[in-house]
Structure formats: C-alpha cells, structure tokens
Amino acid sequence: MTYTAGIDVGSTYAKAVLLGENRRIVARAMAPTGFRLGEVAERVYQRALEEAGLTKEDVAYVVATGFGRHQVGFSDVQVTDLTAGAQGASFFFPGTRTVLDVGGQTMKATLLTEGAKVKSFRLNDKCAAGTGAFLEKTARYMGFTVEEIGPLVSTSRQAVPISGVCAVFAESEVINQLSLGSSPGDIMHGAIASLVDRSVQLMKRARMEPEFTLIGGILRFETMVRVMREQLGAGVNVPEGDLVQFTSALGAAALAQGRLRKLAQEESRAGQMSVPPPSPVA
Description:
CATH superfamily of the largest domain: ATPase, nucleotide binding domain
Largest sheet: 5 strands, mixed
Shape: elongated
C-alpha cells in the first residue's frame, strides 16, 4: 500500500496527516508550533506514523505547507498554505469555490477555479483583530482559556458591539462592556461577530462565489459558523470535528498523491520511449 504525508507548520499549531490508498485518512497528529519549527514538524510526523503503525520508509512522498514549511527538512517538496488549503477544502467538498481559512495569526480568503486551482486571494492586514488571536485575547482579558470560548458563547443571549479595530485596544472595550453589566458570554459573542465581519469583507475582496468552505482552528467554534451563515445569507461547508484544523495538512497529503501519480506516468512514458522499435522482417 502507498502512503503519503502532509505536514502543515502553522503559526500556532503544527499538523501531520497520513493518507493511504483510496484517499483514506489513516492517521493525524497535532502539537503547538513553538519556535523550533523543524523539531515540531518531526514530532507530529512521528506521532502520526506511530498511530498508523508505520515507519518513514512506508511513506512514499511528503509535502510540507504552512509558514514554517521550509523548515521541514524531510519533505520532498513545499507548497503554499493557499494551495494546500484549496486542495484540502476540495477534498471534503468538491464544489468549493471560495475558501476562508481563519487561523491563530492569519486569515485568508481564496477564490478557486475548477480543479481546486487558486484564482485569486486576499490576506488579512498585519493585525491580530482579523485572526483567532483576537478571540483568544478577548477571552484571556475576562479570565477564560481558549478551550472555554465555546461553552462561554453558548451562554450568550445577544452579542454586544465590539469594534475589533485593533486587538490591542480590545481590552479597554472588554473592560467598558463589563462595567456596563454585559455578560462575558455576550462580549465573546460580540468579538466573534466582529471577526466574522472582517472575514466577510476579506471574502468580498477576493470576489467570493458560492460554494463556501470554512477551514482553520477558529472554525471549530459553532457560533463562528452560525454567525457566518447569517452574514452570508447562504450555506457554508465546514469539515467535521477537528478535521477543520487539519484541512491544509490533508490537502498537502492529497497533493503528494497527485505528485506520485504524475511521476509514475512520466516514468511509464520514458520507459516506452526507451524501447527500441522491432527489427524489420526480411
């Protein structure tokens, strides 16, 4: 059986996905990125191999992606996270035309052509207000962890206005809302609504078209997805469970399978060309 691997070294988490034949996910692993990018890539890859009961020798091709992709010394090739995200989104939802990827430090909107090729894209400004870090900071100001964001928002009855102009200024807005008696759940709901507003604007700049697919760690919060549906006035696709965080790594592994097929075709053609023609019959 032929296996391929995708390694996504993101700004917040590093992920690894192993694909087997028939594009089946056989293992995945994730760990905080930290600052030793090569080491964390090796670690998540090894965890995925152990989960699948495989060794490095069993994997035929490795593709790295993410901002730390060039630090993955064992990869065969590197691709941008836009390309990997497009492939991963189309892996789950083949009709995808617009991809929104919201991570811890980045937000990207991508318009695709048929075949999951990137047609146009837009990136967030260099500001945490357009990323998952905005939600994390807002939660931390109120004494909550990232893991508590989902349960916290579920208690909300109505979102309170959070401008989201700058994550640095979010603390003063949170303090002001708390002094007015707003509940932490409503404040968190407002922060999510602010992030969604920025997301939709980014998608418009990328000339968004349905069908929409949302990926990235922040999309694991159901409220984010619900508010996005309300803002767009249309349905959106979201990979199930934690797969929303592994979409780019999965896309990289799928690209590795495509690369293997292309190499096999090239070798086959080269072999056919090297066969001498039959001798003429006397």
